[in-house]
Amino acid sequence: MLVLDKIDKQILELLQEDARITNKELSAKLGLSTTPIFERVKKLERNGYIKGYVALVDPKKINRKLTSFISVSLKQHTNDKIKVFMDQVNKFSEVMECYHIAGQTDFIAKIVVEDMESYQKFIVNNFSKLDNISQIQSNFVMSELKSTTAYQFDELNK
Question: Which pLDDT tens digits describe the chain residue by residue (158 residues)?
Fold first, then answer.
């Protein structure tokens, strides 16, 4: 496994802030020439530290104004039943994130849709029809306090 040094961590933080930053801009900020920066970025990509590059879209601009987190309990917990559930959930574009969790429920999913009517249609026509679900609990987002995709490397600040 690759051990990240201070420069690697700084590169990751800068790329998380702006994935479109050029190697030339990275080299200026980090005090290295472009060749070692290029090699480090490629190494981080090859070793899976950088999974990809994306544009973060404002959901409100594309009429996705309602966010809900739903807790899901399954009837049966065999590996096969859990895999079937995960495969089914992965097909729904409304599901932005889904996690298999420990606790009172089995999964938590982030659902983003246009409005309450769209949410109801999604739950009634899609999600609740999955055969291994015993219970769904919905929680609706009233306002967003914090939303980030960037991981911080605290050791850089010491």
Answer: 789 999 999 999 999 999 999 999 999 999 999 999 999 999 999 999 999 999 999 999 999 999 999 999 999 999 999 999 999 999 999 999 999 999 999 999 999 999 999 999 999 999 989 999 999 999 999 999 999 999 998 765 54
Domain match, 116 and 73 both: yes
Question: How many H-runs (helices) and E-runs (strands) does the chain carry?
Answer: 5, 4
- Among the residues of 47-150, which ranges form H helices? 79-89, 116-125
- Whether residue 145 is contained in a domain is answered as no
Number of domains in the chain: 2
pTM of the model: 0.87
> What residues have CB less than 8 Å from 19, skipping those under 6 apart?
53, 54
- Asked if residue 81 and residue 38 are part of one domain, the reply reads no
Could you tell me the two tokens for 32?
A: 């290295």
